[in-house]
């Protein structure tokens, strides 16, 4: 689908919270005409782009066909609502799902027809165009469907594809949940900075700006994180003193491993939710 055609496409978004809202905001930036977007969410979205229609349930939807339907409710909600939206989906509709865990097989069951379904695991930096989106297409999805998905998500950050659906569990653990790990590290670093520097406002600023600068450097440099770390670390200097604490007994390595495994396991559990 060409970009001009995409602007005319009818899009239905089911669930518009933090992640759905961030994606719609990106799409309204010249990609899809806001007038062609309908959101179904019982909770009004506070920062809706002008023109986008919001309704609180399927009975209020005024269009009877959508080119794209995006599922952005919590995985636990999906089994309760899936049957309500079948009337708005035709064989030509591409279903996109950003829900963690929920497998294409469960989404295909929304309708009787063979349905193109693409799962996309985004993350919240999509809000600033620096998201990571990982996609998996079911067997029905065509190359045109995949190209459309690339077009819709590229403005929000980088788009990657996996070809084995079970990889989506690991993907969710790494990039879907990943921003929260860095934010937690930032919380710890800010708290520690405030214990070290009397000016607490400056302390917090230094910690956050440093994490931002380091992330940007890592993204723009071809060198691996280890090489960048070594560049900061003078023999017997201050960084070495800190790293000896952070790296002692491989505690952080083990924690990172356990954390990713826990997230991946939770994604697998969410995939086992039964239709209501
Ligand atoms: N927040 C994140 O970082 C990411 C979230 N996701 C996935 O995105 C999905 C949404 O997550 P968030 O946006 O974080 O959650 P959220 O709680 O902010 O948004 C969910 C929205 O669904 C709405 N909702 C509840 N019941 C509904 C119903 N019956 N019909 C229509 N809408 C209904 C809620 O009012 C809410 O606005 C989840 O499936 C999650 O796994 C995926 C990647 C990252
Ligand atoms: O925590 C969650 O389940 C969702 C999926 C990835 C990020 N947030």
TrEMBL record:
<dbReference type="InterPro" id="IPR029036">
    <property type="entry name" value="P5CR_dimer"/>
</dbReference>
<dbReference type="InterPro" id="IPR028939">
    <property type="entry name" value="P5C_Rdtase_cat_N"/>
</dbReference>
<feature type="domain" description="Pyrroline-5-carboxylate reductase catalytic N-terminal">
    <location>
        <begin position="10"/>
        <end position="101"/>
    </location>
</feature>
<keyword id="KW-0560">Oxidoreductase</keyword>
<protein>
    <recommendedName>
        <fullName>Pyrroline-5-carboxylate reductase</fullName>
        <ecNumber>1.5.1.2</ecNumber>
    </recommendedName>
</protein>
<dbReference type="InterPro" id="IPR036291">
    <property type="entry name" value="NAD(P)-bd_dom_sf"/>
</dbReference>
<dbReference type="Pfam" id="PF14748">
    <property type="entry name" value="P5CR_dimer"/>
</dbReference>
<comment type="pathway">
    <text>Amino-acid biosynthesis; L-proline biosynthesis; L-proline from L-glutamate 5-semialdehyde: step 1/1.</text>
</comment>
<feature type="domain" description="Pyrroline-5-carboxylate reductase dimerisation">
    <location>
        <begin position="165"/>
        <end position="270"/>
    </location>
</feature>
<dbReference type="InterPro" id="IPR008927">
    <property type="entry name" value="6-PGluconate_DH-like_C_sf"/>
</dbReference>
<comment type="function">
    <text>Catalyzes the reduction of 1-pyrroline-5-carboxylate (PCA) to L-proline.</text>
</comment>
<comment type="similarity">
    <text>Belongs to the pyrroline-5-carboxylate reductase family.</text>
</comment>
<dbReference type="Pfam" id="PF03807">
    <property type="entry name" value="F420_oxidored"/>
</dbReference>
<keyword id="KW-0028">Amino-acid biosynthesis</keyword>
<dbReference type="InterPro" id="IPR000304">
    <property type="entry name" value="Pyrroline-COOH_reductase"/>
</dbReference>
<keyword id="KW-0641">Proline biosynthesis</keyword>
<keyword id="KW-0521">NADP</keyword>
<keyword id="KW-0963">Cytoplasm</keyword>
<dbReference type="GO" id="GO:0004735">
    <property type="term" value="F:pyrroline-5-carboxylate reductase activity"/>
</dbReference>
């Amino acid at each position: 689908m060409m970009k001009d055609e995409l602007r005319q496409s009818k899009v239905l978004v089911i669930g518009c919270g933090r992640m759905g809202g961030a994606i719609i905001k990106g799409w309204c930036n010249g990609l899809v005409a806001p007038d062609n977007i309908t959101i179904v969410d019982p909770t009004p979205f506070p920062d809706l782009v002008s023109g986008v229609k919001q309704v609180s349930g399927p009975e209020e939807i005024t269009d009877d066909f959508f080119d794209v339907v995006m599922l952005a409710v919590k995985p636990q909600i999906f089994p309760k609502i899936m049957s309500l939206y079948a009337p708005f989906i035709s064989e030509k509709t591409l279903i996109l799902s950003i829900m963690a865990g929920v497998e294409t097989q469960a989404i295909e069951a929304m309708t009787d027809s063979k349905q193109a379904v693409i799962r996309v695991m985004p993350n919240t930096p999509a809000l600033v165009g620096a998201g990571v989106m990982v996609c998996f297409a079911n067997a029905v999805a065509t190359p045109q469907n995949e190209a459309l998905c690339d077009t819709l998500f590229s403005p929000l950050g980088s788009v990657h594809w996996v070809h084995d659906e079970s990889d989506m569990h690991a993907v969710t653990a790494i990039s879907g949940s990943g921003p929260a790990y860095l934010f937690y590290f930032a919380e710890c670093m800010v708290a520690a900075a405030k214990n070290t520097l009397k000016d607490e406002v400056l302390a917090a600023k230094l910690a956050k700006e440093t994490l931002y600068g380091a992330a940007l450097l890592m993204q723009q440099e071809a060198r691996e994180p280890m090489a960048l770390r070594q560049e900061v670390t003078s023999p017997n200097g201050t960084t070495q003193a800190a790293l000896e604490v952070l790296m002692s007994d491989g505690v952080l390595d083990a924690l990172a491993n356990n954390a990713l495994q826990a997230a991946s396991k939770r994604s697998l559990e969410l995939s086992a939710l039964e239709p209501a």
